[in-house]
Design a protein that fits this description.
Number of helices: 4
Low-confidence stretches: none
Number of domains: 1
Radius of gyration: 15 Å
Bound molecules: flavin mononucleotide
Distance between the termini: 41 Å
Helix content: 40-55%
Largest sheet: 5 strands, mixed
CATH topology: Alpha-Beta Plaits
Order of helices and strands: EHEEHEEHH
CATH class: Alpha Beta
Length: 146
């Protein structure tokens, strides 16, 4: 059986990490506002994904139609609330990872921060590993909040 190229359906993904530029005292509140706004906006653009915030770093994976992702990516890259944005993965995807979330969110915990720092320091060789990690953190976070 042959599989059609993912680009035929225009589904693309973008995985990046960045450093938070917000003063520590406001960061959490500002990130909560970003998440709230993004949930509605991503849904309206048929974008899904996950955001991880460690207190000092962001890791985000976004997936959706190529046109939506291009517009969103331009916005996110120009957003001065973070800097040192490093792209790990960008391109066609066969299927969505976070199909149930327009933006799943995992907030700071020591465990998450350590894991992310370790991964970023050793270099992200396997982007699937990073997406798996995001998925795990989101699950833990959702379980804690329910
Ligand atoms: C770490 C981070 C993640 C963000 N994620 C999203 C997102 O998933 N969806 C979204 O619409 N905006 C997201 N934003 C906000 C965008 O950068 C931008 O502010 C938003 O799209 C509104 O743009 P506008 O004010 O030019 O309309 C994020 C911002 C930051 C700093």
């Amino acid at each position: 059986m042959t599989h059609p190229a993912p680009h035929r359906f225009g589904l693309v993904g973008w995985l990046y990490a960045s450093r938070c530029a917000l003063p520590a005292a406001w960061a959490q509140r500002a990130v909560d506002a970003i998440v709230e706004q993004s949930i509605a906006r991503n849904a309206s653009m048929n974008v899904t994904g996950a955001l991880l915030f460690t207190g000092s770093r962001f890791v985000q994976f976004l997936e959706g139609p190529a046109e939506s992702l291009a517009a969103l990516r331009r916005n996110v890259l120009a957003d001065r609330r973070h800097h040192h944005i490093v792209t790990f993965l960008s391109g066609g995807r066969a299927e969505r990872v976070f199909s149930n979330w327009s933006l799943a969110y995992a907030g700071p915990s020591l465990f998450v921060a350590d894991k992310v720092e370790n991964l970023l320091h050793t270099g992200v060789k396997n982007t699937a590993e990073m997406i798996d990690l995001l998925e795990q953190f989101v699950m833990i976070s959702e379980a804690k909040n329910s």
